[in-house]
Predict the 3D structure of the following.
Amino acid sequence: MNIQIKSSNGITLMPLETRLLASRKVFIEGEITAGTACEFVKQVLHLNQEDGRTPIDILINSPGGEINSGMLMYDVIQSSKAPIRLFCMGKAYSMAALLFASGAKGSRYMLPHSELMLHEPLLGERIGGSSSSLKSISDSLQETKQKMNRILARHTGKSEDEVEKATGFDHYFSPEESIAFGLCDEIIGFDRVMEP
């Protein structure tokens, strides 16, 4: 979608995404894949090179997706020089919920009717093979589960046991429940998202 920009040179058309990026707004929307993760890295890298002090707003509306791609995005959020503010708009499920929860305290905001969902890591596709292969996959999945639980425990202030109980099934959190569990800091209106 293009928008019109008026200047002394007249009216020019600009992609909406470009205009929003110029306002330091980055979106995580749809499924998290290798492609969306690389695009995210490029945008955050560009904004950090442009200005390492002004906050970057990350707006999330995602069902989650690939764990490795999500962990790349997690690493970028954790090591960004520019402060990161995270906004859940609609939903942040699975890996998207982990990304949202990973923000610094005081920088994680949800709109009133947004929702988070946590669960254990899932196998992305059907598997087959020898019993040794299946055991290796099972061991790897268990390690991934423990890693995710450690990350969530660190960012929520909950124990790993509490996190494991909460992620043992599809656990949906309202904004109020998200605050109580340490996943979110504040419920806000959309006007706050529009603030610079």
Notes: Residues 1 and 153 are 40 Å apart (CA to CA). The domain at 13-193 is CATH 3.90.226.10 (2-enoyl-CoA Hydratase; Chain A, domain 1). Residues 131-156 form the longest helix (26 residues). The beta strands are 2-7, 10-15, 25-29, 56-62, 84-93, 108-110, 115-118, 171-173, 186-187.
